[in-house]
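The pair is quoted verbatim underneath.

:::
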Amino acid sequence: MTVFVPRTAPGDRVALSHLRRRRRHARAEVAELLERSKDRVEPACRHFEREGCGGCQWQHLSLEAQHRSKRRMVGDALRRLGGLAVEDPELVASPKPFGYRATITLTVRWRGSDPVVGFHRATGEGEGAGEVFPLERCEIAREEVAGLWAAVRPALGSLPRGEDVRLKLRVAHDGTLHLIVNGGDRAWTTPQPLADAARQAGCPATVWWQPPGGAVRRMAGPAADKASVAFEQVNAEVAGALRAAVLDAVPPEAHEVLDLYAGTGEVALALARRGCEVTSVEAEDAAVRLAEERARVEGLSVRAVAARVEDRLAGLLPADAVVVNPPRTGLAPEVTAALAGQPPAALVYVSCDPATLARDLKRLGASPERLILRCFDMFPQTSHVETLAILRR
């Protein structure tokens, strides 16, 4: 029986505790490390072992072991679940193994009159599993974000009350700093202490609030573009390399291109600048409006559709090339069926989950000779990996 044991390294010898049996596998935790693997290193973060932070799963692994494991994860999924006889793909490493995250999202839990703001402990059977612990410093956050966190920690008592409150700290692509508060059980009237604390520390930040079911609004701090609080990649360097690879994968002769799950339209706008006729599809209205505004400012022709991809794709095909960047759940069956029925010359698939990628490639009828694969280490120190799959007709 396979036993999954978090926070171990290939080659470790451990004594186990909290063994939980399932029908075909089991899970357990490390009671004692008896022999250390050659791939094991000392974690850089104080919270990794002290609080069992659930944010980074692999800080105890050398970077070489992390890369090797991510390549194998993708290759194994495609061979085992996708039925594809492929080698483990190459991996594009992150220039920064630490200090790369432009955004961190913290959970707020009130204990009487004091807030506990931080990450969750790793889930499991151990004491305090899943609880929120107070964050001192996040080692994978960019220095601008770490500095902002240090500045505002004394002012956390001004956060709104409620069980659903989240605090997001961000450095935008233009270098501006932002504090984005989500949730709360009543109107939030005390944002100013957060803005004052950031300004006094020499890192002025705009404070935003998005109440439950409401639109995001600026509450304090410098005036800023609302686009700064829209989705942004957390690792700018790797995101740039991935975006360049996506654009390179679209054939130069492609004229009609679909950008599905398009977000705020980064890829769609880049293809429009190239002269392509682009239709983008995104379910989030705010992201579609932002894409339309950016296209209007640049004078680009992009047709932005606010809808679920599975509801509109059949009416948009055929196309010369299709770019898809779905959520972790992958492509809906209606999407793979439509693409398999009218395949583009190039299907460019950005995946954040190897298992759903393997499933979708199988549904699409992919074969190794028509498939190009590459991994991107967007999230060092974690088990997450981005994969670019290019399927030629």
Remarks:
- The first helix runs from residue 46 to 50.
- The first strand starts at residue 2 and ends at 4.
